[in-house]
Amino acid sequence: MDAIRLHTLVSGWIDKSIAPEEMRELATALKEDANTRRLYLKYMSVHAELCSLEAAQDYFDSIDANQTECSGKTHSNQGNNVKPEPASRKSSSTVRNWGLFAIASGLLLAIGIWQSADRWDLNRSRPTAEFQILDALKPISEDCTWYVEQTPRLRANLCMPGDVIRVTKGKLELKYAHGSKVVLHAPAAYELISNMKARILLGRLTATVSDQAKGFSVLTPRAMVVDLGTQFGVEVNNDGATDVVVFEGEVDVDYNDHTDRNSAQRLRMGEAVHLDAIGTASRIVSINRRTYSSKSLESFSRPAVISEVHDNIERSSSMLNYYEIVPQGMQEDAFAFVDRVAHQWNGVTPAGMPPYLLGGDYVKTFNSDKFNPDIQVSVKVDVPCRLYVLFDNRLPAPAWLKRDFQDTGDEIGLDTGPYQTYNHAWHNQGPSGVGPGESVEDTLSVWVKVVAEPTVVFLGSTEAPESEPNMYGIVAVSLDAQ
């Protein structure tokens, strides 16, 4: 039932002008729809408070002196000059508040849907934690500064529908009751709509959605992003342009194109889309994981070596894959490809991978590109470095690799784990191992090129036949770090 119709029926019931058929309509809606029941109780709370304006004014005065815990700030009273309210006034206010709420709960009891969870605070007639959307708000960077734009409701210590959370500095983690987490990156403005829907007004977020919350939606000025069990990022700039990036799983992006045609786009792991200020969609070619990381910038000890990655392939509207730059991310069990959930880099033996690769910037390439004979990948490096290519030993080295790079004689392993492709077939049923030398299925040779100054380096195709090789890996380590 929509809010206007519910308000009309509730008002009629309170002033005893409701018709019998309207009463049946109200009772049916309250019995069958939990959201209608919640809204109904909110209306009754307002009516109760209107009967006790003095108590309401006392509460609003208290807000001026003490911010709620949800704002992330704490203040103390500077004196004891507040005159106590007479006990008789408090008692009378409480009786009037509880009286109207008892009438409200009586209707729910009469139609058999009152539950013990739907309790009410006798002193303030505010909703209980059932109405609270978030379990916790936690700064995850030392410089985090944030606050909540609160609407004028009679409540305390609750983040509820309609609240806008603004992060002005650092990063803030929001934890939902269903286990999902959203990290807001400053500057950001995030509006709570319900426990399954929110709106990003400005800024960037990274969402990790639990299995219990599939269908969680994020609204943007240009689209609605619907989770299908995943980890994804969303960014909205000052013009309303929107980026959507899928790190794991799938999302549906429903474009706001105001036409009758079906404008939904499914994005899978390793795919991303940019919607400009007028809603035109295009591929995002590369992303820097530092942009969406929950780590603070201080956690990265060196400047980025790789700043951009591009290719010469025109992707289709259903294949919007990107390259992911992972600063200082090369380590044991690092994920190798943007479109494979289990492939991990590891040392071939328990001794580990070549130590000069550890802590390097690396690129998660798109493993499906291994079969493309015309692909050319360009890597932009911003500082002098050693650029490494990790090439599958099952393939002969192509001419571009032998011409521009030198074989180090070292190898690195790939733990392919169980993985699923777009035809939903599972490959390599064995589990992923942990650590070097564990569950290594493939070996790759390490090739190196010394890059003396900032430049763009071009890499060619694998020249692979229709078999089961892997797309090559890319790692860069600044000369200063070696």
From TrEMBL:
Protein name: FecR protein
Annotated source species: Adhaeretor mobilis
Residue ranges of the TM segments: 98-117
Biased composition (Polar residues): 70-81
Gene Ontology terms, MF aspect: sigma factor antagonist activity
Domain FecR protein: 166-251
UniProt entry tagged with the keyword Transcription regulation: no
Pfam families assigned: FecR
Region (Disordered): 70-91
InterPro entries: FecR (IPR006860), Ferrdict_sens_TM (IPR012373)
Keyword field contains Transmembrane: yes
Keywords, comma-separated and alphabetical: Membrane, Transmembrane, Transmembrane helix
